[in-house]
Amino acid sequence: MDERGYILQKVAYALLTIAIVASLNFVLFRILPGDPARLLLPRGQWETKAIAEQRAAFHLDKPLWQQFGYYWRDTLQGEFGKSFKEKRSVIEAVGQRLWPTLLLTGTGMLFAIGVGVSSGILAGWRRGRTFDTVSTGTSMVFYAMPTLWLGLIFIGLFSVRLGWFPPGRMEEPGAVYASQWEHVQAVLHHLVLPALTFGLAYMGQYHLIMRSSITGVKNEDFVLTARAKGLSSMKVLHRHVVHNAMLPTFTLIMLNMGFVVSGAILIETVFNWPGIGLLSYHAMINRDYPVLQAVFLLASVAVILCNLIADVVYYYLDPRVKA
Question: CA 61, CA 173: separation in Å to the nearest integer?
Answer without folding.
Answer: 40
